[in-house]
Amino acid sequence: MVKRIACLVTLIYPLILFPQRHSYINGQISDAITGNPLTGATIIIDSSVSVVSDKTGNYELIANPGKYSMKVQFLGYKPSEFKVNLLPGDTVVLNIDLLSDVHMLEEVVVSANKYEQKLSDIIVSMELIKPDKITRTNTISLESIINQTPGIDVLDGQPRIRGGSGYSYGAGSRVLVLVDDLPIISPDASDVKWEFLPVENISQVEIIKGASSVLYGSSALNGVINLRTAFPTVKPTTKISLFNGFYLNPKRKEMIWWDKQPMHSGVSILHTRKIEKLDVVAGANLFNNTGFRENEWDKWARANANFRYRSKRISGLSFGAGFNTMYQNKIDFFLWQDADSGAYRQNIDAITELQGFRLNIDPYIEYFNDKGCKHSIKARYFTVDNEFKKSPDKNNESVLYFAEYKFHKKYHDLLDLSLGTSGSYSVITSEIYDDHNNFAGSFFTQLDGRVIEKLKLSAGVRFELYKLDDEEEYSEPVFRTGANYQVGKFSFLRASFGQGYRFPSIAEKYTSTNLSTVNIFPNPNLISEKGWSAELGLKQGMVFKDWNGYLDVALFRTRYEDMIEYTFGIYLSGISDSITADDVGFKALNIGNAQISGIDLSLAGEGIILNIPVSLLAGYTYIVPIDLDFSSMGGLNSPDEEILKYRSKHSAKADIQITWKKLSTGISFIYNSFMINVDDVFTSPTVGEQILPGYAAYRIKNNKGNIRFDHRISYKITKLLEVAFITKNVFNKEYIGRPGDIGPPRTIAAQLTGTF
After folding, report:
1. Domains in the chain: boundaries
2. Number of Cβ within a 10 Å radius of residue 251
3. CA–CA separation, 203 vs 195, rounded Å?
4. Within the chain, how many helices (H) and strands (E) appear?
5. Is the pTM of this model over 0.90?
6. In CATH, which superfamily holds the domain spanning 2-98?
7. What is the pLDDT of residues 510-533, one digit of tens each?
8. CA atoms of 217 and 51, how far apart (whole Å)
9. Architecture label for domain 104-231+239-755
């Protein structure tokens, strides 16, 4: 017995004196493009020992010294494998970036057909905006990031796709703006207030180019912009972003009206978490802008929340509600004093201070089963209250009640059936266009099927009834059809045709007011405009090792009937035969028929090039916008006058982002060619000088279009904290949108973002 004990002591004694020293591997698992930590990634050595990354993406492995094969894998990402040599007592730090294994052609979108499908399968042109781009460009309101997207412009707050709209003085839109598939344009003016949209809580923004009335109804005549909000991931997350910026002096010193640099600042907060079966998202946003133009400012406070509960008892059933509310105090800029020292100074008679309140509440319920059936009911209560302090005669209130039922049935992978019905009712109270109410009810259906393995066909129809103050306005059906054929592994050829319509807004029909020297007249006889768009496109996927993307080329044509445009003229009141200043101004008219043809190119991609993450979005759009009812009057008029007003024939945009370790930088630019036609009144040597002094000469001098660059650079101070510096209009270019509206000079902002 003693001998056995002595033998055992002899064996373990060296281990006690000289213990084997373990080795350690630790680090963080992150997304190679965004740098965001990945929770739940699996780290394996020698196919036996494994750990899972925690909520901050961190991991730690303990192993004996030696040579190992190490593998890191995470759902939706390409696995990473490499060799590691561990010496006794070593602590090896390995931060590993994983590249997404989902090609851009496989991005999931909803807006195209109101159900989830791959980007490569759709029959229309579509652009996507991801939340990372919104964060890194210090996007204050969605308007600025929309304006950087190929084929889309925002002119003085109004969106237009492929030149589909001109300038309509804040009333009426041919692009329907949605939040989570529900309309968010005002019931009276049918316009969108971009600052109301919750940019702090975005899953992605989907933009459909072309008539989409079959699925979305009126105001989708030119396309759709759908902001989809996000729901929580596995781990609770809190994101706080603060920024402060200022406007630098313009190149022309006579334009400077300030004693100290105008400033803008803001803060946004977003918190997301799962509480068992309950998903919670809550956000807030504060903003203050003293304005780069005299007597202009903008202040707002916004709060939003989304709740979703997934039933424990009934599989596939979920329900919830969301809300978004904002209080705003602002003065908009409308007309300059003159083209020189008064370019950044308001015409004092046009100043109107607004105190506005907006609120939407969105209850919904969804149910889907294992047989491929999905039912959803979504509703929205949306109210707008605008008070003008010095002009109470412009006060207005409106309330929208909207509801939609949608059914979707998937028959294996061969057929998708969608059908639904929607209804809306609005009540408007206003001094400048009296009190009104309207009702719209619709039924729509669409069938998408795979005829052969690589060919998909789509067809849909919509019936809609619209009543304004008990007067029936429109109830004709519209149709949509298209095809998508996969001609190669990453090549998709598509063709589509869709009809659209737009009911005139209450503001277009009944507004009677003035802004300084500009009169706005009502037109109760205005009728709905109709149209169609056709497209032939090719989406070519590109995969180069760890970089993937696509090139999209589309030939398009859009036709309008009874097109609505604000037109300057003499509109006698009928009280007197003599013409006075009160009889001259703008009125919304059905100008007749119009056509816009052109080509649209987009290039998008992301991935690793030379071990550096690179993302790219670029595009070019060429349009020929023609008034088909234009007459040259025997050659007396210039052929350029047939070009529709407020359009640029050429537009080019690009954005590139490069990341190296903790440092990221990006550059974007926007180019628009010269706006060939504007309202003649603005260039008139008599009336024009009274409305916009100096504009006629300014337009002749600045007739080469405009290009401007933005730059950004950011650095990850820690895993949770990032600082960024954003410069907009880097070269301090002077550029103009609509007449009398010169854009901001060079702007510099610092942004600090923490994610916890």
Report:
1. 2-98, 104-231+239-755
2. 12
3. 17
4. 8, 42
5. no
6. Carboxypeptidase-like, regulatory domain (2.60.40.1120)
7. 888 877 667 888 899 998 999 999
8. 52
9. Beta Barrel (2.40)
